[in-house]
What does this fold into?
Amino acid sequence: MTKTSMRGLLAAVLAGGIITGGMSGAGVAHADGGGVELEGVSNGDCTATIKVTNYTNSTFFQPDWWFAEENDPDMVNRTDIPATMEPPWREESGIAWPIARWVGDPPLRSGLAPGVPEWDSNNNYNRNAQPDGFLTQQTIDLNAVSGAPGPSADGTKTIYFRIKTGPQEGDRLPNPQQLVVTGCQKPGGPLDFGSLDLGALVP
It folds into this structure.
């Protein structure tokens, strides 16, 4: 396959124009061992690790994310590109709806174990190509994001993330997951004595 045809294929895949099957389970973590699973973990230091477990033979499932303060149901649910968008919502080449931030740089996407043939025009899509799953992950520092909102009074920031791209519509996870990320206190902020036994300090 030429580079030109592969670029065209990728654009169509991200926009959902290649395969539009109606498998059930879109928007939830697939418990049957097929498709993809999406998970977020707060690391306690104002960073979040987003994980994609890929059971398919496609590398085109790619999550995006945004802060709770940026949550716009119209942008989240649109199936077209509006005339105007507020950051982080933007138009991404080949995708027919608004996208927020990709996860990390280079962006997180579904991965393949060594030796697994990748889905392309010569290899059919297989949602169970990797029965044990293949994990890829990226960690994002919420304090380092340009224009990031400040933390809550208890030092948290809330984000949403999803997978709305990929070759098989039924294997995407378009319903946003919410993650409360802890450890975002401002420098010099109040200390958390919740786990400190002051009695142990008294001689």
Q: What stands out?
A: Residues 70 and 86 are 9 Å apart (CA to CA). Residues 1-29, 191-198 have pLDDT under 50 and may be disordered.
